[in-house]
Amino acid sequence: MVSEQRELTIVSLYPRDMNIYGDRGNVLSLVRRARAHGYAPSVVEVDPGDPLPEHVDIVIGGGGQDSGQGRVAKDLAARADEIRGLAADGTPMLVICGLYQLFGHRFVTHSGEELVGIGVLDVETRGGSERMIGNIVLESEEFGEIIGYENHSGNTELGAGSRPLGRVVQGAGNNPSDGVEGARTGNVIGSYLHGSLLPKNPALSDFLIGEAAQRRYGGFAPIAGTDETVRRARASAKRRPR
Ligand code: GLN
């Protein structure tokens, strides 16, 4: 008997304009992890003007400079209803840094330009004069310890409709004063942690894959473990000072 191929369609949102500090690593890692769990993932790259595929299981997008955000903000506004509909329906999504900001209500740049977001996450961001750069460690009730790298000048504040991804143990996070990082509404996660996020934190990949599998196939039985490469990467990221 030919074994059934359980497909998962991953939308990589704006890889041309929003792809910085290794954000592509998140897509590669998600694909590997999905394969390790026995799925057949395919990646559909969606740049401005491209249609979304008919069926979407996971949406993932990265960060970029303010100029790249300006280029994609208009396109994102044009497909806001479609993305809001997918989010409301429980589609798991991970958006990083620049796209995290645009999934909120607005991003006002340091020079005062306002980029309107799609409001899937209840956050607002203002560009600041200082950059928050370095390795970062979070503690999350759901995912345990999360390790990553941040590099942004935007200061993000959470509204009541989103909860943080985690509490900051080391680093800055959403802004230098609130002590929290990221935002979560339903199955949509926004975070400042760039392309090493999924490679170093398989629990987050498993969340995205698990929710997608649950929606499409009615269940998820994880079979991949956490390998030695991931353990080493996590240990070395924590050793390096900010
Ligand atoms: N321009 C935004 C900021 O610095 C996003 C940067 C990024 O995506 N790395 O806050």
From TrEMBL:
Keywords: Cell shape, Cell wall biogenesis/degradation, Glutamine amidotransferase, Hydrolase, Ligase, Peptidoglycan synthesis, Transferase. This is Lipid II isoglutaminyl synthase (glutamine-hydrolyzing) subunit GatD. The lipid II isoglutaminyl synthase complex catalyzes the formation of alpha-D-isoglutamine in the cell wall lipid II stem peptide. The GatD subunit catalyzes the hydrolysis of glutamine to glutamate and ammonia. The resulting ammonia molecule is channeled to the active site of MurT. The active site is at residues 97, 194. Forms a heterodimer with MurT. Pathway: Cell wall biogenesis; peptidoglycan biosynthesis. GO terms for biological process: cell wall organization; cobalamin biosynthetic process; peptidoglycan biosynthetic process; regulation of cell shape. Substrate binds at residue 131. Belongs to the CobB/CobQ family. GatD subfamily. Residues 9-201 form the CobB/CobQ-like glutamine amidotransferase domain. The keyword Hydrolase applies. The gene is gatD. It catalyses: L-glutamine + H2O = L-glutamate + NH4(+); beta-D-GlcNAc-(1->4)-Mur2Ac(oyl-L-Ala-gamma-D-Glu-L-Lys-D-Ala-D-Ala)-di-trans,octa-cis-undecaprenyl diphosphate + L-glutamine + ATP + H2O = beta-D-GlcNAc-(1->4)-Mur2Ac(oyl-L-Ala-D-isoglutaminyl-L-Lys-D-Ala-D-Ala)-di-trans,octa-cis-undecaprenyl diphosphate + L-glutamate + ADP + phosphate + H(+). It comes from Leucobacter triazinivorans. PANTHER family: DETHIOBIOTIN SYNTHETASE, LIPID II ISOGLUTAMINYL SYNTHASE (GLUTAMINE-HYDROLYZING) SUBUNIT GATD. GO terms for molecular function: carbon-nitrogen ligase activity on lipid II; glutaminase activity; transferase activity. Its EC number is 6.3.5.13, 3.5.1.2. Pfam families: GATase_3.
